[in-house]
């Protein structure tokens, strides 16, 4: 025991010693880690200090570095040491300054300011693993996998372009003109705008680039002169602040700031005004009515504190005087803090701040290029990872990356009017356009952005509140080429005369609609077709889509396939497909009086007459003497009563309540049947009836007879695609005479059984061909419209004009002028056109049948109750039991008896005993008297 206890003591002592040693070792390790954190971390910044964004960013970055170094809760005792270089708008200087910074072993560079510089510096950053944190390079392509060490700490232009596309779509414009600086920043931004517009079925109709180094106003004037010749009047300007102001100034001098223009510029304008506010009066005059964007940042306490102290910062740090704070300055300030948090996380993960020699530069060193100063940042990958994982709240709101982009991109939509900005709404990728602050919308349940699109009113260029149309006819001298089908027949719709004159119903509608437009439309009609064969209308529309024609008018049917190629106006005439076939007259006969009703209708009517008689007989038999007698007489009474109600001549009276109710309902049905029969018979005997072996499209499809159609029409393709009719059965016809001859010959003589064509054509055809008629129903609903290129604004205006013509009655007057006055116009030739079917009266018969059933049920219940009472009285005092057959016989006898007889029988039975007792008493009295008289006689 002593030995064991001694070992236990030794183990305890050893454990204590180890704990002390471990504790000392741990404290030394911790102190060594703390001591391992560097005193200084070098960071760099690349700015163009003379620019509106650069001079604001310089003050913001320096202030942020000071704030970080004062706040030991982020980096502790480690200080950020900033090295700032001025690139002076030069890409070449940007590259040299960047190489100089990387040679001074900076762990990250804030910048560059311009997207053009960021593109080639990103390649160097990839090689040397030095992260670039840019608060101003907004080119969307910089977010690609090609530039992993480029981190954008502001919002990409892809969101700004989405906002502009939403504005264009919100106001209903379909095309814009883009003016942009011709470099990576301008080209890639406009490419993003083009993609966003395409998503909304809009487009850039003309691109007008200008050189980044443009200095002469004449160079900008040349660009604007070409823009003025274009059709679109919605102009988007994507440039740098100074160049963009030159464009707007020159546009005003060229009178391009009038009421018909719309100017939408990217956020460079808001940055310019925020920085240099107030602008000179002349500069403000150049931008009146312009719509611009500004990056939206929430109103937080951090932002309010920073903004309120901006004047002191700018006066203290800027040598050239004070200036305003723009949104890029806010993001520049947050970029420093973002980098500080990332460096802190990097150091906590024992990140390596060492730099190593790049062996790939040895060849350049041998060529005396002095590239040995460039070093690879060994901890670059870890620092980049730490940057992308930062999550904090800065002066711009929540700073967090999602898919390498900052979350919650949002913009303010600004209208420049007078000397101030006027905010007309917001845009965010969460809600689209809205007058509600994005932060409030983020708190709500996500919804369809298109459901809340809204902006306040805008004062447009020219000091007008009327929304500009957004387009005009191009001032380049070209007139619209409008294709017109050169038809072989049906010239009432379109006629092309020898002297190239065009007339017809379609021509009149088109010219009348043009006259209602508020602007002139220069155009020329161009005949399409040789005049010997009907042209292919689908081919004419295809030529519009490829730019050969600017529009097409005439008898052009609107179909699904055609609507995919062009845009149609509102239909100006309805015209569906119908079937035309030879018809014969239905001669009157001795049995014409049966034709108003169908056989089924006659059968059901007769059955209900009989059922009515039977029901009335059942209800009246026991109480009404008119419905009693021998069986033969009762059958005759039922038949006579049933059919006499047809003429309301029945003489039998109904005495029961149920019987009267049933009779009233039935007489109402008879009244309706009589009225309908008389009306239908009158129509049959006075209106000429026609008959054809073809009943409609269904019977035509089920047969194997050939079918005719108008050459060039969509009817042939429609029959093949929709009704699966074999092409061999379809016969193209070139003229009205061909149609008439083919129908007269019929299938037996090489003709056709029927012709399928549009109703508008057929009505003209039947005006002079009385032996044919439309059979069956119209089986395709479509109309005729004028065709224009996709997204043509003229199509919308023409549709409104056509509706106005229709509402004013002018469209009908033109229709009557060209297409009315047809003596043989027939609506159809259906054998049963005026016949009455059961489906027209089934509700009446249903109500009548229900009344019959309910009356019978009520009657049966009443009879059963009376029979039960009768049986109880009959069996009272009787000890014998009747068999079921006897009960049934008794019940049938009870039904056949008069109700009064049944009711009077118990009364007679009760009176019979009393009468018998009176007779017995009388006889007894008489016998007593006789005995007494006999005794008296004997005594005498």
TrEMBL record:
Q: Does the keyword Calcium apply?
A: no
- The residue range of the signal peptide is 1-26
How does the record classify its membrane topology?
Multi-pass membrane protein
Every copy of the Ionotropic glutamate receptor C-terminal domain together lies at 481-821
Cystine pairs: 770-824
Highest taxon above the source species: Eukaryota
Keywords linked to the UniProt accession: Disulfide bond, Glycoprotein, Ion channel, Ion transport, Ligand-gated ion channel, Membrane, Receptor, Signal, Transmembrane, Transmembrane helix, Transport
One Gene Ontology BP term is: cellular response to oxygen-containing compound
Q: Which family does it belong to?
A: Belongs to the glutamate-gated ion channel (TC 1.A.10.1) family.
The free-text function statement in the UniProt record for this protein reads: Glutamate-gated receptor that probably acts as non-selective cation channel.
Q: What is this protein called?
A: Glutamate receptor
Q: Which organism is it from?
A: Manihot esculenta
